């Protein structure tokens, strides 16, 4: 099976591919590269509170909502 050329995919297409091909580490590597290129960076979580906040940030970035549990 040939893998798609991730460099030609939009962010939305790349995310859709990642959700349907979770075992493909290459797509996640490309997603990380794009985040790094965007200039957005966050410090490594040091406490449990930091870790929870990072989970919320990542959830918002991936899904576009508040990341709050109902």
Name the shape in a single word: elongated
Structural class: mainly alpha
Order of helices and strands: HHH
Largest sheet: none
Number of strands: 0
Q: What count of domains describes the coordinates?
A: 2
The helix count comes to 3
Helix fraction, binned, reads: 55-70%
> What's the gyration radius in Å?
14 Å
Residue runs with pLDDT of under 50 for 5 or more positions: none
Strand content: under 5%
For the termini, the CA-CA separation is 40 Å
The pLDDT mean sits at: 84
Care to describe what's here?
The chain has helices spanning 11-20, 25-38, 48-63. The chain has two domains: 1-39, no CATH class; 44-70, no CATH class. It starts with 10 loop residues before the first helix and ends in a 7-residue tail after the last helix. With 70 residues, the protein is an all-alpha fold. It is elongated, with a radius of gyration of 14 Å. The protein has three helices and no strands.
Describe how the helices and strands are arranged.
Blueprint: H1 11-20, H2 25-38, H3 48-63
Q: Could you give a quick summary of the protein structure above?
A:
By secondary structure, the protein is mainly alpha-helical. The protein has three helices and no strands.
Features:
single chain; elongated; 2 domains; 70 residues; mainly alpha
């Amino acid at each position: 099976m040939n893998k798609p050329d991730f460099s030609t995919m939009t962010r939305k297409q790349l995310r859709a591919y990642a959700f349907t091909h979770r075992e493909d580490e290459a797509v996640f590597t490309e997603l990380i590269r794009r985040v790094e290129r965007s200039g957005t960076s966050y410090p490594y979580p040091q406490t449990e509170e930091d870790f929870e906040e990072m989970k919320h940030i990542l959830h918002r970035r991936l899904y576009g909502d508040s990341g709050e549990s109902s």
